[in-house]
Automatic annotation (TrEMBL):
Domain named Methyltransferase type: residues: 65-155
Source species: Solidesulfovibrio magneticus str. Maddingley MBC34
Keyword Transferase applies: yes
Gene Ontology MF, one: S-adenosylmethionine-dependent methyltransferase activity
A Pfam family this chain is assigned to: Methyltransf_11
GO BP terms, alphabetized: methylation
InterPro entries for the chain: Methyltransf_11, SAM-dependent_MTases_sf
Protein name (Swiss-Prot/TrEMBL): Methylase involved in ubiquinone/menaquinone biosynthesis
Keywords: Methyltransferase, Transferase, Ubiquinone
Superkingdom, natural source: Bacteria
Amino acid sequence: MATQGACWAWTPLDGTGPTVRCSDTKPYERADVRLATGDAIRPGGLALTERALDVLDFAAGSRLLDCGCGAGATLAHLADAGFRAVGCDVSAVLAAEAAGRVPGRALRAEAGALPFASGAFEGVFCECVLSALDQPEAGLEEIARVIVPGGYLVVSDLYLRAGEPGSGGTGAGCAAGALPRELAEARLARHGLPSVVFEDHTRHLIDLSCRLVLELGSAREVMAVLTGREPGCAGDGEKPRLGYGLWICRKEA
């Protein structure tokens, strides 16, 4: 994930220092958020990763990239399953955590500037990442570049449900770049990655939201994480009606 610019009170993930207010806080690095999300740091966790693997049935030893690997939960899962998996994340904190979990397989890099050769991977996993990118078009261009023709992109992400406007809000939180499903799929297709499978998994978002409310103390705090607005104003104005989906896209030959 690559969320930036949100503003609220938080405690560093490593527990050092006092609780502070910071205009560049990344919610996925917050200790209280991680208590609710676990190491996967997203709705559905590894269950959706495994669902995609069941659908795609990659051959043993396939070259896979976890783009936005976070703390390395999916990366470790893929490596343990016998795939030649590597991961990258824009967060120095999380990239270091992933590298500690799967030594030699994780590095810090932005989705829009991937340090890999064209066609380097049979598949790329992009889990709860695109909606948080500052420049999703650049990210998708790079992701498409590193996938072999006929290879696959697995996307699990937030989307705006029917009847909502075409933007996740004015903030910089996890949902800032969420789109309606039709627009999200059109964007994927523009980059030569048409969707061949879509499944709605909004129940996982609901489950995680409930855990976040219990951990953070209020629905407003959860909306602050999602939209990037401060808790004091997260309840003002229209709120995006969010869903969570799994897309499997095949790169055009």
